[in-house]
TrEMBL record, chain B:
Belongs to the complex I subunit 6 family. NDH-1 shuttles electrons from NADH, via FMN and iron-sulfur (Fe-S) centers, to quinones in the respiratory chain. Couples the redox reaction to proton translocation (for every two electrons transferred, four hydrogen ions are translocated across the cytoplasmic membrane), and thus conserves the redox energy in a proton gradient. GO terms for molecular function: NADH dehydrogenase (ubiquinone) activity; quinone binding. This is NADH-quinone oxidoreductase subunit J. Its main location: membrane. It is a multi-pass membrane protein. It comes from Flavobacterium microcysteis. Its EC number is 7.1.1.-. It catalyses: a quinone + NADH + 5 H(+)(in) = a quinol + NAD(+) + 4 H(+)(out). Keywords: Cell membrane, Membrane, NAD, Quinone, Transmembrane, Transmembrane helix.
TrEMBL record, chain C:
The chain crosses the membrane at residues 34-54, 87-105, 117-135, 141-159, 180-201, 213-240, 252-274, 280-301, 308-326, 332-354, 375-397, 412-436, 456-476, 504-522, 604-624. The keyword Chaperone does not apply. This is NADH-quinone oxidoreductase subunit L. It is found in: Endomembrane system; Membrane. One of its GO terms (cellular component) is membrane. Keywords: Membrane, Transmembrane, Transmembrane helix. The gene is nuoL. GO terms for molecular function: NADH dehydrogenase (ubiquinone) activity; NADH dehydrogenase activity. Residues 68-118 form the NADH-Ubiquinone oxidoreductase (complex I) chain 5 N-terminal domain. Its main location: membrane. It comes from Flavobacterium microcysteis.
From TrEMBL, chain D:
It comes from the Bacteria. It is found in: Endomembrane system; Membrane. It is a multi-pass membrane protein. GO terms for cellular component: endomembrane system; membrane. Coiled coil: none annotated. Residues 123-408 form the NADH:quinone oxidoreductase/Mrp antiporter transmembrane domain. The keyword Transmembrane applies. Keywords: Membrane, Transmembrane, Transmembrane helix. This is NADH-quinone oxidoreductase subunit M. Belongs to the complex I subunit 4 family. GO terms for biological process: ATP synthesis coupled electron transport; electron transport coupled proton transport. It comes from Flavobacterium microcysteis.
TrEMBL record, chain E:
It holds the Pfam family Oxidored_q2. The keyword Membrane applies. Its EC number is 7.1.1.-. This is NADH-quinone oxidoreductase subunit K. It is a multi-pass membrane protein. Belongs to the complex I subunit 4L family. InterPro entries: NADH_UbQ_OxRdtase_chain4L/K, NUOK/Mnh_C1-like. NDH-1 is composed of 14 different subunits. Subunits NuoA, H, J, K, L, M, N constitute the membrane sector of the complex. GO terms for molecular function: NADH dehydrogenase (quinone) (non-electrogenic) activity; quinone binding. It is an enzyme of class 7 (translocase). GO terms for cellular component: NADH dehydrogenase complex; plasma membrane. NDH-1 shuttles electrons from NADH, via FMN and iron-sulfur (Fe-S) centers, to quinones in the respiratory chain. The immediate electron acceptor for the enzyme in this species is believed to be a menaquinone. Couples the redox reaction to proton translocation (for every two electrons transferred, four hydrogen ions are translocated across the cytoplasmic membrane), and thus conserves the redox energy in a proton gradient. It catalyses: a quinone + NADH + 5 H(+)(in) = a quinol + NAD(+) + 4 H(+)(out).
Length: 456, 174, 626, 479, 106
């Protein structure tokens, strides 16, 4: 609860700073503030006080995820000033929107009531619509914003419809009540329909097939930093919220929903990977890669009772790798009007450090040890085998193989092609963020217990 | 009597909704939509939810629709300039409409318990007067105080967003 | 003492090899050759020493150096066995080896790689000693392959000529085919007896250990394949004539006197096993007989002096195998020894001729050489008489014994062997007449250079000629020293055929046969002064013979070409297909990716359409399908 | 001191090399590789003295993963092979100059680190990590410093990476499946899993895919020839000399003990497949026009035989396999180095453009000849000892298979001598061919020395590995 | 008033709002004019609002109606942002036909 308030206050402060013309202080102060909030949240790790009509619950699940979100936001905000160098007058807006987005994100994992969830997801979505369209002189950005908005609002309709049906069946928006009512046998049948419609809305948000179509277009059109945000923070948030919802409703869902989930998971992985193979635009490629990772993360939903830790681990691994990759991408595509692969040509020579970091990030996503992406996949596969989904694991393995294809395309470009232009100076923050992210990624790879044990 | 009113209102609602979509001229669409909103408010009134109905009319017909109309006027969109749609689009739209309506309705019909009049739960308490609503909405301990405040963040974001999206570029840009 | 002597015996040639490899180029030519010769001579001396020792003690000497390999449930030591058989072999290997080394000093004097030649020769002697003295099949195999290697190196000694290299390669690979058989044989024996040690196996057999005779037969058959590879029997004999590409001393040493007898050595070594498997013995005898006949046929029409000798070697080896197959091991050994003498003499003599002719090997261009090369002629004549089976000379006794045994055991084989003997007499005298009689048929320039070879060449010839004359007396019918000497090697005593009228009758038949052969040769080449025509004039059956029954061509067409064809097919099609399949998986995926991009068409309407359809199907599946 | 020290040395070496700068990188790498060799010899002494050199530490609590490093005789043999070859390989590269050599040598040491880790791991998970980790350096080594047209090189290397990666993922699934049953990744725990033959079969298959691609066995070998050809000599040596031994070692260490029932049930299929590779590799080698490709296919044939020996699950088979791994490791490194020496002078790999080298460089010819002979398993060379035991083990299972596998000694001689003849013999080549210099000669002489010495006296190695192999057989035969 | 629901039956209301929701979907799919699509989405949201009120009555619980307020706030916020984006697009391409927005694809 305090986390939420503190972040919102920080957001307002940002807006005020603009008014008082202390623009330069915004980002440092925000980062320090966020780190402080991170500390605050982390120390209250297992405090499960649920006051305020159970609107916000901080428990084993929400706190680690909140911490992850805050951390990711720190990275993203740190990247903001360099990215928006030419639009300094908008920085306070960008930063505060991101902060508010973070409140939405935190609400989405800490909600104790569907109202909070709904508001959280809407805050998140609306912030993303704005950020996607924020480069208003660029038609691509406009188009991305528009597409995202239209489809997102459409999906919100489904989510709302689902919530209404759940309410109709249970008579309350409170998660505790819902969970309890769910376990009793006589619940109105439309609860299931509501839960499924809600799930469909969430599947859209995490960009799982066949609700994924928006992702590549929007990722490609949005300003790169926004893409970074969407592919890391937003995806992870939606996934965590979805996980929480499913774990609350799981008992009630018909068995066949497991099958449906499996099919969706397989579809997402396969479509994401296969489509990514032939992409030239790196952002677009990462969008498809994100779709496939959504498919992987969806697998955790097949064993909700035991896999919260694995989801956290997977999400952290994926998001940290994503942050590292996007930091490099931001540097490479700076002042470029596209993000095609050839921009990365020769990066291995012109900037070996960043090239190495990007390689590491991609290897992590591909699931190669010692990067945490590998451990995430292993733990996930283990969980799935335990639950008896061998076919799913096989498909996932095949997909991991396919994914190497396109991740390595980028690596090849960096190391085997000649650079087309001289090296540009690298903004310090890009290097710093990329390094920290990849180091964290490796660190959680070397000490997986640190995250895994949090949620057990 | 009530049933008749319900059917009339429902017919208006659905018809105006359809007309909103089928009318070529955006202005006309907007007007049909307003009618639709009013009919929905009528439904609310049927349930005796006057406050909600009023708010509904103020927000939708008053704010949202005006905003839409304003935009239409601003952009001078009151022409019927939409290109002729391809048959495929129409087919797809119709098909998916039929499909989704069929599936949802079938699912509801299949899963819906047949409720007799006596099956409805009646508490007899007041649950939708302004007073009660206010309490539920703004009570800190047992109400929706937090979401209510959180909604302010939502509105703030949309405000900043709208501003950000229409802010003039400073000279240095590009 | 014995150990160090043995090590000297073994390592002296090896030291010679090392010296010539590392310092041969730096010292003068004569030093290099002398050192090589001395190294072998030392071995010969030690072998003599051992010979006398064993003659008095009658006890085999077993020396284990160290533990070498571990196989399944038994160990294989790096150990050596000096018994009657191995010492006998040692004697003539190192003895003839020494002579040929001496010969080579002069013969190879002008070659730029003289030191290498001696290095290889020494190495060969080293491996041959290993082969002969090894106390188990694996050590023998080291020597076995080692001599094969040296043979390869020496055949291809003039490595600039790729044809010679082809011949060397052919020899090595053909030998390897036999070696595979040998290996499998070793495996089988190891499996059956849990040992590959000669003494152990012999003890096991002697003590009547029951073995699966079927498997034993398989094992001995495999060993025979090994032997037939090394000793040039059908079907693996074709490499030997080609091996004449090497320098002549090599042909004499390796491809006549020593290496090619390794197969006979091995079978004699394991005589107690072959005795248990009469079927295999029968096969050996038949193969030996046929080989001797076929080779003799081919030799009839060859014009290359060394080729004739090579086929004659094959033919003689066939006779030895015939003896082996009939269980007359000591007779085979006897013939090995006499053959070593006269065939070495013949080869060295032909080398002397070639030396004089400056490398010309075609008999059609020789003739009348006896006028120019007296010593060579006389020694050559003696050796030819020996090989033809004229009494007193060594070949007579050994060959006669083989024929005798054949007569007793199997008349058909006797007929074949006799036929081969008659032909031998014919083609050897044909060779003699064409080379040394009548007028010289070469160019004037060659005639101008004709001369007797230097004494370093003639000395070995003389020694060998003497041995070819008197060598037969080591196993005089009725009073065979050799048979007595070799007794301990065998388990089963062979029934001796007493010297009776049949014996004399057979001797007479053999001699008459030889004389008939000589007579035909005389009438053709002296009386009628025939000279074989040019290659393209040969017709009919002679052409088939001249082309060696087209065996090389058949092998080429039936084995080598198909292998190449399969190789090409594998490389061009299977590899491509396999690689293409794996690559195709990637390609298909990529193609799906390319096609999939069409779906991502940028239209919100389409995206939402899929969204709705997806929703509808999920709900329909979950709520309506059940 | 335990085995982790060796890993630390190599890792520190990799980092030190990376930091040292291009000028000194090669020397520092050599130094560290020699140090690693020294350490492994020291560890061998400790092991022989019966000291405990194993390390086991909990790493991840849930799932239970240990940092478990252990060495028995077999492992020690492989580790020694690796650490002995590494200085040779590094030293052999002194004749070439590589751009960014600090990265190059650091990657080599890192790869060796991973490979040694693979040999030492006693925990399946750790093992897998090292296994995968070794793949990344070689990928970059081949990609960045390789020869030939970058486009085709890229294609080959990427194919190699994806292919091997794909295979090992299936092994990972097998491991995870086993973990679900036993609750631990420790080898000692995994072998206690009670599995039906059917389950074992799938697990076996998972491992098999990983190993068959890495070794490689037919028909999974298609990546090999191209990569060997395109990779820099050092990369090829690492790949053929050590990396594929990793997979063969894993068969003995992991695959057979974990799925013995399946291995026995389907013994003839796997032995047969391996032996088929012997013939196939030999035959395809006959027609190769590029010397490195020819050697690649010859390697395919040899490792096919080794794998066949492993799959017979007899003591002879395993021992022969281990001996042959070591022999082949040295031999193939020597051969590839010889090929590299030729291509340093001729800048081509095409056999047709060579010939007549013997006249110009007798020393090199002799060395090359000995290596060729070792490769065709001439008795007296180390390769013979291994090949003999392998064939003997095959004969125990089936004489037919043994004969088929034995054709390697014929076909091997066929293509190797054919190659030797075309490359080295014949008339003098117009192009100048300098004889080996000291550095090159030293490497060759060491390799030849090892091959000859152990060919005559393999006892130390046999004594080292036999107890471990007997133990392995016992484990395999537990059910 | 409970009697309304009893009189008409909750089923009919659910059907009504479902159909209305579907009309909204249909509108989004059918039209390419962004503003009309907005309106269609508003129809969808309104359908849900109606449903919420129905359930609120059904359960005799105020929470449903309170939720409608939030829903309205969300709708308003969405429209505000959506229109801002729309205006931006209109400035760029002078059209609000979303079929003209096909630069991002593939």
């Amino acid at each position: 609860m305090y986390t939420l308030i503190a972040i919102a206050v920080l957001g307002v402060l940002c807006l005020l700073a603009e008014i008082f013309n202390v623009r330069k202080a915004i980002v440092p102060v925000t980062i320090i503030g966020l780190l402080a909030i991170l500390g605050l949240t982390a120390t209250g790790l297992n405090d499960s006080a649920d006051s305020y009509n159970n609107m916000i619950v901080s428990d084993n699940f929400s706190t680690p995820f909140s911490c992850l979100f805050i951390l990711l936001t720190v990275f993203l905000i740190a990247l903001t000033p360099s990215f928006h160098q030419k639009e300094v007058h908008k920085i306070s807006d960008f930063v505060s929107i991101k902060l508010f987005l973070l409140t939405g994100a935190v609400a989405m994992v800490a909600f104790g009531n569907l109202a909070m969830f709904f508001l959280g997801i809407e805050i998140l979505s609306i912030s993303l619509y704005v950020l996607a369209a924020s480069n208003r002189l660029s038609l691509k950005s406009n188009e991305a914003g528009m597409k995202y908005f239209l489809m997102g609002a459409f999906a919100s309709g489904f989510i709302l419809f689902g919530i209404a049906l759940i309410y109709g069946a249970i008579g309350s928006f409170d998660m505790a009540v819902i969970q309890e009512a769910g376990t009793s046998a006589d619940v109105e049948d439309w609860f299931y329909i509501g839960a499924i419609l809600l799930s469909i809305g969430m599947l859209f948000k995490i960009a799982a097939a066949p609700f994924h179509f928006w992702a590549p277009d929007v990722y490609e059109g949005s300003p790169a930093l926004t893409t970074a945000l969407m592919s890391t923070l937003a995806k992870v948030v939606a996934m965590a919220a979805f996980f929480k919802l499913v774990s609350a409703m799981n008992v009630n869902l018909p068995d066949s929903s497991q099958t449906a989930l499996m099919v969706i998971s397989i579809l997402s992985m396969t479509i994401g990977n296969i489509m990514a193979l032939k992409q030239n635009n790196v952002k677009r490629m990462l969008a498809f890669s994100g779709i496939s990772h959504a498919g992987f993360m969806l697998m955790t939903l097949l064993a909700v009772s035991t896999s919260a830790g694995i989801l956290l681990y997977y999400a952290s691994a994926y998001a940290l790798a994503g942050i590292a990759a996007f930091s490099v991408l931001l540097y490479v595509t700076k002042d470029k009007d596209n993000e095609d692969i050839f921009n990365f040509n020769g990066l291995g020579k012109t900037n070996p450090l960043l090239a190495a970091i990007l390689t590491g990030a991609l290897l992590s996503m591909a699931g190669i040890p010692i990067f945490s992406g590998f451990f995430a996949k292993v733990f996930l596969f283990g969980q799935m085998l335990n639950a008896g989904h061998i076919i799913l694991v096989i498909v996932a393995v095949v997909n991991s193989i396919i994914s190497v294809g396109y991740y390595f395309k980028l690596i090849l470009a960096m190391y085997t092609k000649e650079a087309t232009e001289a090296a540009k100076p690298v903004p310090f923050v890009y290097t710093a963020v990329a390094t920290v992210a990849i180091v964290l990624n490796i660190a959680i790879g070397l000490y997986p217990s640190f995250l895994l044990d949090l949620l057990v | 009597m009530l049933t008749t009113v319900f059917y009339i209102l429902s017919a208006i609602t659905l018809a105006s909704a359809f007309l909103t979509i089928f009318t070529k001229n955006p202005i006309h669409s907007a007007i049909y939509l307003v009618i639709c909103f009013f009919s929905i408010a009528g439904h609310y009134l049927l349930f005796n939810a006057q406050f909600l109905a009023v708010v509904h009319i103020i927000v939708y017909s008053g704010a949202i629709m005006i905003l839409l109309l304003f935009t239409i006027m601003l952009m001078n969109l009151n022409k019927e300039d939409e290109k002729h749609k391809s048959g495929l689009t129409i087919l797809a739209a119709v098909a998916s409409f039929c499909l989704v309506a069929y599936v949802l309705l079938a699912a509801f019909i299949k899963s819906m318990p047949i409720l007799e009049k006596g099956d409805y739960y009646v508490s007899g308490e007041d649950y939708q007067s302004i007073k009660v609503l206010g309490q539920v909405l703004l009570d800190e301990k047992n109400g929706f105080m937090i979401p209510f405040e959180f909604a302010s963040v939502l509105l703030l974001v949309s405000m900043i967003g709208a501003v950000l999206l229409s802010k003039k570029e400073e000279k240095i840009s590009l | 003492m014995e150990t160090s002597l043995l090590l000297f015996l073994l390592l002296a040639p090896f030291a010679g090899f090392l010296f010539n490899v590392f310092f041969g180029k730096k010292v003068s030519r004569n030093v290099s050759g002398t050192i090589g010769t001395i190294a072998v001579a030392i071995s010969f001396g030690i072998a003599l020493n051992f010979f006398f020792q064993i003659n008095s003690t009658k006890k085999p000497i077993l020396i284990e150096l160290f533990h070498w390999m571990t196989l399944g449930n038994f160990n294989v030591g790096f150990s050596f066995l000096l018994d009657q058989l191995s010492i006998l072999w040692l004697l003539f290997v190192t003895g003839i080896g020494t002579l040929i080394h001496i010969y080579s000093i002069s013969y190879m004097h002008d070659d730029e790689n003289l030191h290498k030649f001696f290095a290889y020769l020494n190495l060969f002697i080293f491996f041959m000693i290993t082969l002969v003295t090894g106390s188990n099949l694996l050590i023998m195999f080291i020597g076995w392959e080692g001599v094969g290697l040296c043979s390869y190196l020496l055949i291809g000694f003039w490595y600039k000529n790729q044809e010679y290299n082809d011949a060397a390669k052919k020899a090595f690979i053909m030998n390897r085919i036999g070696d595979l058989g040998f290996l499998i044989g070793i495996f089988t024996l190891g499996y059956l007896f849990s040992s590959v040690d000669f003494t152990t196996i012999k003890t096991a057999v002697a003590s009547g250990q029951t073995v699966d005779l079927g498997w034993l037969g398989f094992g001995t058959f495999c060993l025979f394949i090994g032997a037939s590879g090394k000793s040039a029997q059908i079907p693996l004999y074709t490499w030997l004539p080609d091996a004449m590409a090497g320098p002549t001393p090599v042909s004499a040493l390796i491809h006549a006197a020593t290496m090619v007898t390794a197969g006979i050595f091995m079978i004699t070594r394991l005589n107690f096993l072959f005795d248990l498997t009469p079927n295999i013995q029968m096969i050996i005898a038949v193969i030996g007989a046929i080989t001797s006949l076929v080779a003799a046929f081919i030799a009839l029409v060859q014009n290359d002096i060394k080729k004739v000798l090579a086929y004659s070697t094959v033919s003689q080896l066939g006779l030895m195998f015939l003896a082996l197959g009939l269980g007359a091991y000591e007779i085979a050994v006897f013939h090995v020894i006499t053959h070593a003498f006269f065939k070495a003499c013949l080869f060295l003599g032909s080398g002397s001729v070639i030396h004089a002719m400056h490398g010309e090997q075609d008999m059609r261009k020789m003739g009348g050489l006896r006028k120019y090369m007296k010593v060579t002629y006389i020694t050559f004549l003696i050796a030819t008489l020996a090989i033809s089976g004229i009494p007193i000379f060594a070949g007579f006794f050994s060959k006669d014994e083989i024929l005798m045994v054949a007569f007793h055991e199997n008349k058909a084989l006797w007929v074949i062997a006799s036929l081969a003997s008659i032909m031998t007499a014919f083609y050897m005298f044909r060779l003699l007449y064409l080379t040394f009689f009548k007028e010289f048929r070469g160019t004037d320039e060659q005639r101008h250079h004709l001369h007797e070879s230097p004494s370093l060449i003639t000395f070995p010839l003389i020694v060998l000629a003497i041995l070819s004359t008197v060598g037969g007396f080591i196993s005089f019918p009725g009073h065979s020293w050799l048979n007595e000497y070799l007794k301990p090697i065998f388990i089963r005593a062979r029934e001796e055929h007493h010297v009776d009228t049949t014996t004399f009758m057979l001797m007479g038949v053999a001699v008459v046969g030889a004389l008939i052969g000589i007579g035909i040769a005389y009438s053709n080449y002296i009386k009628k002064s025939q000279v074989p025509g040019a290659d393209n004039e040969i017709t009919g059956f002679s052409k088939v013979l001249y082309n060696k029954f087209y065996v090389d061509e058949i092998y080429m067409a039936v084995i080598v070409r198909p292998i190449y064809a399969i190789a090409s097919f594998s490389k061009n099609f299977i590899e491509t297909a396999l690689s293409g399949f794996i690559f195709g998986l990637g390609k298909v995926t990529n193609m799906v990716g390319t096609q999939g991009r069409v779906l991502q068409n940028g239209s919100v309407g389409f995206y939402l359409f899929v969204f709705v359809i997806g929703t509808a199907s999920i709900i329909a599946y979950l709520f309506l399908a059940q | 001191m335990d085995v982790s020290f060796l890993l630390i040395i190599l890792l520190v070496g990799a980092i030190a090399t990376f930091l040292s700068g291009d000028k000194w990188a090669s020397k520092i790498a050599l130094l560290f590789s020699l140090a690693a060799f020294g350490v492994s010899v020291y560890l061998l002494n400790l092991y022989n003295a019966g000291q405990n050199i194993n390390l086991i530490k909990q790493w991840v609590t849930i799932p239970k993963i240990y940092i478990a490093l252990g060495a028995d005789g077999l492992t020690m043999a492989m580790v020694l092979l690796t650490t002995a070859l590494t200085p040779l390989i590094i030293f052999s590269s002194f004749g070439n100059s590589y751009a960014k050599s600090k990265n190059f040598y650091a990657l080599i040491l890192f790869m060796v680190f991973a490979m040694v880790g693979t040999f030492l791991s006693a925990d399946g998970f750790l093992y897998y990590i090292f296994w995968e980790l070794s793949l990344i350096p070689i990928y970059f080594i081949a990609l960045i410093w390789g020869n030939g047209n970058p486009q085709s090189r890229k294609k080959a290397v990427v194919k190699f990476f994806i292919y091997t990666f794909a295979g090992s993922l299936f092994m990972l699934v097998s491991f995870i499946y086993l973990y679900q049953i036993t609750g631990s990744f420790l080898l000692s725990d995994l072998i206690r899993a009670q599995l039906s033959t059917q389950e074992q079969f799938w697990i076996f298959l998972g491992f098999f895919l990983a190993y068959a691609i890495k070794i490689p066995l037919i028909p999974f070998h298609t990546w090999q020839a191209k990569v060997y050809q395109k990779a820099p000599a050092v990369g090829t040596m690492l790949l053929s000399g050590i990396m594929l031994k990793m997979a063969l070692y894993s068969i003995i260490r992991w695959q057979l003990p974990l799925a013995p029932l399946a291995a026995k049930e389907y013994l003839y299929y796997f032995v047969g497949l391996s032996v088929a590779g012997v013939i196939y590799g030999s035959i395809v080698a006959l027609k190769q026009k590029d010397i490195k490709k020819l050697l690649a296919y010859s390697s395919l044939a040899h490792v096919g035989l080794i794998a066949a020996g492993c799959y017979t699950m007899t003591l002879d088979g395993l021992r022969g396999a281990t001996l042959q791994m070591i022999a082949h490791g040295f031999g193939v490194v020597g051969l590839f180095f010889a090929a590299e020496i030729i291509s340093r002078r001729y800048t081509t790999g095409k056999i047709s453009e060579m010939g007549g080298i013997r006249i110009q460089s007798p020393k090199f010819t002799s060395m090359f000849m000995i290596l060729v002979l070792a490769s065709v398993a001439l008795p007296g060379t180390f390769n013979f000892v291994g090949e003999f035991e392998l064939l003997y083990s095959l004969a125990q299972k089936s004489v037919t298979i043994c004969i088929i596998g034995g054709t390697t000694i014929i076909l091997g001689a066929f293509y190797m001598l054919r190659m030797f003849q075309k490359v080295m013999l014949g008339e003098k080549n117009e192009k100048f061919f300098a004889d080996v210099n000291f550095n090159e000669g030293l490497v060759m002489v060491i390799i030849i020395g090892v091959l000859l010495f152990f060919g005559l006296y393999p006892k130390p190695i046999i004594d080292l590995i036999t107890p471990s192999l007997e133990e392995a057989i016992k484990v395999i035969n537990r059910i | 008033m409970q009697s309304v629901l009893q009189e008409i039956g909750i089923n009919n209301y659910i059907y009504l709002s479902t159909i209305l929701f579907c009309i909204g979907i249909f509108g989004v799919l059918f039209r390419r004019n962004a503003i009309i699509m907005f309106m269609s989405i508003e129809i969808m949201l309104n359908a849900v609002n109606l449903l919420l009120v129905v359930f609120s009555t059904y359960h005799q619980d105020a929470a449903g109606q309170v939720f409608v307020f939030f829903s309205m706030a969300v709708a308003a916020a969405e429209v505000a942002v959506g229109l801002a984006i729309l205006v931006g697009i209109y400035r760029n391409i002078h059209s609000i036909d979303i079929d003209k927005l096909k630069n991002l694809k593939g």
